[in-house]
Queue: 4 jobs
Job 1
Amino acid sequence: MLNEERRRLILEILHREGRVLVGALAKQFRTSQVTIRKDLDILQTHGRVHRTHGGALPVRESALEDLSLREKEKLYRKEKLQIAAAAARMVKEGQVVILDSGTTTSAIALALRRFKNLTIITNAVNIAAELSGSSLEVILVGGTLRKNSFSLVGPIAEETLRRLNADILFLGVDGFDVHHGLSTPNLLEAKVNRAMMDIARVAVAVCDSSKFGRRSLSSIAPLSAVHHVITDRGIPKADLAALKKTGIQVTLV
């Protein structure tokens, strides 16, 4: 196989799966890890990939990038299901749970359907619809619909949240920088997220490892506002060490 052909196929795998790992690519293409690392380094030089420890991630065009819910659903499906299962294990019957909008929190909503006595607060129309046929009580905050994410935002959503209290919040993020905190591309979404963090006793950030080292347009909160993080084992070692150093509990799936 020609070098250029292999690199083109690597980009196709990256686009389809959301990340690539050196070891897996070496096995798939029956070549050495040294060769794959060289391929990824060359692709990064040309701005086609973002190199990480042990692999590569897609290149984000800018801090403004705001993928639709359907686009996000295609990425890291396995990891999101594992994160959702770990999140469900943190929940107890009788609690009030906040679910932010997003694909990871949508997976958590599915995992929570087995409970008999929960109150779910959410700003996600799709999550409310998913839980409508369950035995759970669902509170859908009002507001302006963001069609890109099926979420409700704006002053009505924020005011509704401030009148409530919750035991635990599961918050999905687009950017997780251990130095600058949590972020999202949308200003209104960030304000709703901050209101959610204000009313929850425990704030749990749920995100796949591709979100680490990224900073999106609008800051949600500093790292100190997070109590627990659930992510996959692809998290960069330096970021994992930084989280543990701050005393934040980390669950790896």
Job 2
Amino acid sequence: MNANVRITMVMAVVLALTATVLGGQPKTTPSAQRIEIVASRFSFAPNEITVRRGDPVTITVRSSDVTHGLVIPDLGIRTEVKKGQSEDLTLTPETSGTFQGKCAHFCGKGHGSMIFTVHVVE
């Protein structure tokens, strides 16, 4: 093998190793925070949560008694959950603020009191 080719190969290996070492640890995305919400006549428990802007969060909505829903228009959330079942909603909020949600499936006389609040903080 020609000396120039050997030198070029050695330099390529050295550069690759240097790039790997200087690159440091690979960037990781934060794992999703998990929050469970239980819907029952006529409330969500908890009815208020706080999450960080830019961090992924998985909200598990579970119904304990009848079909319920959860809609938070400003966060793009809309789901329906049947009695005894659950639904996972994963989101990464990009805007700070307070966002109001409500039950999206009529569940009885107290349906209008089923309010849910998400606070997105820096």
Job 3
Amino acid sequence: MDELTKQVLRSFAVWQKDVLDLHELFEVGGNDSEARTAVFDTVERLVSEGLLAEEGNDFYSLTEKGKEAASAE
């Protein structure tokens, strides 16, 4: 698992929330627009892989599979 994916998945523990909005997840990329694009692409990939669930209005939560991946390593 690449570092960006780990950071996105672990953001829920960092923020101590079950649901995060996309802007909170963008914090992984800092202020760099290319890094934020990479975060967006990672979030979309994690949704398609079943690790994140879309909650509507740019909010996301970890699925059980995502929770397992976030706690691994």
Job 4
Amino acid sequence: MKNYFLKLIDYDHHSDQTLVKLTIEAGEPEKAVKLMAHMLAAQQVWFNRCNYMPAPGGALWPDWKADTFEQMINENHAAWVNYLNGLDDSAFENIVYYKNLQGVSYENKLEDIMAHLINHGTHHRAQIGQELKLAGIEKLPITDYIFYIREK
């Protein structure tokens, strides 16, 4: 299970890097930048929850600039890879207890949180793609998982 999620985290990293470069090239469309900032902030929130650390602070929809995203993408990826590498496969059955940003308590299996994390990124990258199309990018890169695996 660990290797599976490491592979997905690498896919997520690759796809984020691909879209951030295109977002900058497209003139940093406001909505695309907001979506990318939210996605990166959410990765940090979930990382802290899984590590029983306080929320990183700040907004879940931060007003970040696109020129800071590449470094954040790399830092988030490195943090998740280090975290996952420290686990054994049985850890993915562990329950993570956390509070959402409104203070409501929840508990979920780590494997479900990881699945959510990856799906959340895929969802928002699709929205970013739509915004890039509206900004005039005619041909979007293919960020589907199966294409990533084929090229790997």
